[in-house]
Amino acid sequence: MTAISSYAQLDAFGRERLSPNFFMREFLHSEIAAWHGIRNVPDHPEVALDVGRMLCHELLEPLQAAFGKIHIRSGYRSPAVNRFGNENELNCATNEKNYASHIWDYPDAEGMHGATACIVIPALVDYIESGGSWTAMAWWIHDHLPYSSLCFFAKLGAFNISWHEKPIRQIDSYSKPKGYLTKPGMGNHGGTHEAEYERLLASLRRSGTDKHDSPIVENRAVAVAPSAVSMLPAARFADADTNRETAVMPVNYRAVHTKSAWRIARGHKSMENAIYGKDGAAGLFAGKIRINYARHGTPLYVVIWQSGRSTGFVVMSSRASSTGIVVAELPVAAIEAFEAQGGASTEELALYFQG
Fold this sequence. Notes:
- By secondary structure, this protein is an alpha+beta fold.
- The chain is 35% helix and 19% strand.
- It is built from 15 helices and 13 strands.
- Strand 12 (311-317) and strand 13 (325-331) form a beta hairpin.
- The protein is globular.
- It starts with 6 loop residues before the first helix and ends in a 5-residue tail after the last helix.
């Protein structure tokens, strides 16, 4: 999609579907833009759509599935809108701080991309009004979703939720208790925090709001040594996907490129498809996936696992293989450690192909 220069183009852009329940149009509304007559339109619409889809698929859809309707308070901001908001003290950080955040279509200082939305969840509003704390929602997200940062506000339990190519996994708040709830290096950052959100989940079950009917594996910072290499045929995954109830659990896919350290992709229906399919790892290494290879760089590894299982897989290119790839096993606990730290280094992943 080229730069937006007409109403017809803007209309078409707003109709772009980011995920099953979210469209671009609802992220374009801005009171600052509307009141002060500033255009809130991205300079790079394709980039805005790419990161917006990641925000919606990875964070907003699972949140809405678990807690009910989400309302968007603020989503995309153009550089002009954000600059005006910052200069006039309208609760906007500088443009430099909001690149890869509310300004979706510009990378941050490290060249990474991301997207932020400020949202309100009525179920959380009700919970806070009944005496609960925003921290329950924060810890549930921390345990279940690949967020980059969360920032909670005093009114309506609203909070910023961010997706980023290089997540920092940090939570802070302007609402009591103020300051950092957790960030890397704090003693409470790892492990599970189920006790912190048990009451929130119970309140949802009582009200009939709870729509979350399948467990999600939480991120745990666990140090696990590499297992022995196993070169695995496609049939292994066809058989595995017919076993047990985990066949319906999500398939997770992370690609490591020379420029994008931990790219997330969704939509794979099975492990076999994620590894050997035309839209899977094999297709990625063959250069056939519809992504911007120039922006992400050369693919080096792909890490794939299914929620609910104990073993995942790391994939790399191989000219010696008839499929064009070679596959090794690794523990899901190790993958969760990579998730918690925002990715895995090429050195760490290479270890699984030794021996």
